[in-house]
Amino acid sequence: MENSNLIKLIKSLEKNEKRHISIQLSKHKSANNLLKLYTIISETDPVNDEIISKKIPDKKFVSQLKINKHNLYYLILDALHNFHLRSSAYGRILNFLHQAEILSAKGLTIARRELLQKAGKMADEYALSELKLEILRLQNLEPDDMASSTNIHNETKKLSERVYEESKIKHLNNRMSVYQRKVGQRLTATQLKYLEKQMLNTINAQSFKGNTFFNQFFYFRILSLYHTMAGRTREAHENNMRLLNLFKEEPHMAELQIWKDRYLSVLSRLITSSSLIGKNEMLPVLSDEIKKLDISDKRKAFADINILDAYMQLGEFEISEQLVKQVENNTEFYHKSLGPANRTALYFNLAVLNFGLENYSRSLHWINIIINNPDNRSENVGIANTIRILRLLLYYELGYHDIMEYELRSTYRYISKQKNLYRFEELVLKFIRRTVSLYDRGKLKKVMEETRNALVKLSKIKSEQQTLSYFDFISWLDSKIENRRFTDLVKEKVKERLKDIVE
After folding, report:
1. What span, in angstroms and rounded, lies between the C-alpha atoms of 163 and 156?
2. CA nearest neighbour of 385 among 417, 357, 361, 353
3. What are the C-alpha distances in Å from 191 to residues 179, 186, 225, 470?
4. Which of 290, 311, 269 has the alpha carbon at shortest distance from 185?
5. Rounded Cα–Cα distance for residues 83 and 76 (Å)
6. CA-based max dimension of the chain
7. Of 159, 161, 220, 255, which has fewest CB within 10 angstroms of its CB?
């Protein structure tokens, strides 16, 4: 067991889990030092063996630190197993199987049979086909009679076919997910043709028997992924709604951790698709649904990123204000719950939404947090460059003219160092070079108009659309040229986009 596994496990614990583990460790014979080790790892960041050795005076314990870490790791796992057993149907079924083994060893055949029947009913309720197969196997070891054995045999055959079928559709889903990660959200005509031939035709050609929860879920999910990549936003949303309705019809499925995770994924995808087709009314409903789930702080924080991003995509800056303030008032929670990449996404969303709310100082605050802390910097060059350019716009809006020229040159140097620049970034560099010492408002407006027109042409090129989607520079230039509010222009553009989707 790697030391990092112990550290990662402890750092991932929720408050109620931490409390339970502390109580369980205090009962152990090596309670004092193990509890001390657990507390040090939990409360120290970063942590290493040297720090631990300094904080634990017991030299014998420290000399066997590797063994003690190993013991602590498995004691924590045992404590978590017991803590979550009641809320985990999967865990309870596995527990029944172990208990049935004990009853068998004691010769208590009737009690064993009753326990396996109970386990079988629970496996049916939660569609745990593989576990049900194991239950049938155990029941067939000691059948009541020949008729019972025949029934078990027939049920096993039928269930085996179902497991194989579920495996096929899950495999297709995995292929689709891997392909999406490889090529991105939007496809070229060639990629779309490949997808239709290799995957969509395959799933349509298969006659998946029965309408099991499992098969329906993955069938609709594959269609959702396909339509998303094909740019068919409305169709993607419809399939996401079908996924939501599946869980509404069988809410107990979300009690299983694996399905709870998938349900959360459905809600997250619905947030995105709702924002893309203008279903504003869905956002608070989906947000409330996420809050009802018993999920980790990390997942709750990530869900808030999705909601904020949806408000940003819809140009609903005013509606976002309450959530923006809520997040800003709990920054410590989000900092602890999110990794560097997701923190950057959150801070960037806060910066853009505050920009739309004309809270320019707050927007600049979040941009500076990203830029000044290396841990928050994005590996995505497009976002990193956008963040630098957005800071320029904020200096402009705040009237920081005394540092504008220096910042323009600094941003120019930063972006020009990047390799394989998009045309968008080249245009921005050209704009910066032309405006760095331009004080005549008439000439400045002309440069803005020329840049704006070039960006509009660029927005029609698929390879440039991703970078342009991070922040609506075109609407910002329009707001300066036309002397109108940035927020109003963004909303008008969203309205036009949604009109095209409906048509």
Report:
1. 10
2. 417
3. 10, 9, 14, 24
4. 269
5. 10
6. 97
7. 161
Chain Cα centroid distance, residue 342:
9
SS3 211: coil
Which residue, chain included where needed, has tokens 């553009």? 493
Peptide bond into 143 cis (omega under 30): no
> CA–CA separation, 444 vs 265, rounded Å?
46
**Buried b / exposed e along 239-263 (16+ C-beta atoms within 10 A):** bbbbbbebbeebeebbebbebbebb
DSSP result, 327-339: HHTTHHHHHHHS-
Asked if residue 377 lies in contact with residue 384, where contact means CB atoms within 8 angstroms, the answer is: yes
Rounded distance, CA 165 to CA 154, Å? 17
Instruction: Give residue 1's pLDDT.
Output: 41
**276, 318 contact by CB (below 8 A):** no
- Token readout for 62 is 């420290």
User: Model pTM greater than 0.85?
Assistant: no
d(C-alpha 162, C-alpha 156), whole Å: 10
CA-based nearest residue to 310, from 392, 387, 237, 385:
237
| 374 DSSP assignment | G
Q: Say which residues have a Cβ less than 8 Å from residue 62's Cβ, sequence separation at least 6.
A: 52, 53, 56
Helix (H) or strand (E) holding 242: helix 233-249
Residues belonging to the chain: 503
**Rounded-to-integer distance, Cα 170 and Cα 477, Å:** 47
Distance CA 104, CA 101 (A): 5
Q: For the chain, how big is the Rg over CA atoms in Å? A: 28
- Compute CA distances 296 → 292, 308, 389, whole Å: 12, 19, 35
> Region 101-113: what's the mean pLDDT?
93
Per-residue pLDDT reduced to its tens digit, 227-242: 888 778 889 999 999 9
Contact between 308 and 322 (Cβ < 8 Å): no
Cα 61 to Cα 26: distance, rounded to the nearest angstrom: 16
Q: How many CA atoms lie within 13 A of 297 on its CB side?
A: 17
Q: Is 294 exposed, middle or buried, given 0-12, 13-18 or 19+ CB atoms closer than 10 A? A: exposed
Residue 479, pLDDT above cutoff 50: yes
CB-based contact 367:361 (threshold 8 Å)? no
